[in-house]
Amino acid sequence: MATDLERYILDHISAEDPVLAELDRQTHLRVIQPRMLSGHLQGRMLEMFTAMLRPKYVLELGTFTGYSAIAMARGLERSDAVLHTVEVNDELQDFAAKYIVKAGLRDRIVQHIGPALEVVPGLGLVFDLVFIDADKREYPAYYRMLMDGGLVHPGSVILADNVLWSGKVAEGEAARNDRQTQGVLAFNRMVRDDPRVEKVIVPLRDGLTVIRVK
Fold this sequence. Notes:
21% strand, 7-stranded mixed beta sheet, alpha/beta, 7 strands, globular, 8 helices
């Protein structure tokens, strides 16, 4: 249930894309863990980041039902820009594809199914913008893949979702004894201590880290 402040915010930003509004509803009706969906506020943020950065190659780790992929693709301004999105759960592929087509973005979004650590290095691309929103246990490995594998360049921006992990990152050891929380904590330390990047955590929803490669 949205708070009064959250409703106020949503009433004072650009209206939600009708296709995304339908996708949000259907995700809540038909998919397990619908809270994983980015939603209106974050979707608009992702679209604006994409429009400002004007990337040619965008990578998303964790398609889920396609909300964030569609939002970012809406912000692609270059005629040659493409977004590659990777999802390990093949049962979600057709669901996401339906809305990608409905949004008129089939030529802008390329879906990949499989483990990101296996799929992404084989794409042979260097990315201008990356959005990480997949298995939290793998966040450190995703970061190493991008930074050490030559998949980003100076000026690339990496966005990482859920970096506050419902506040568990600031709680005691009892709250940290699960692999998801451990993955987020390790990722946050890794980014903090990496001199190759500039970084800031934005307390949007469950925390969004904005990382710029120097």
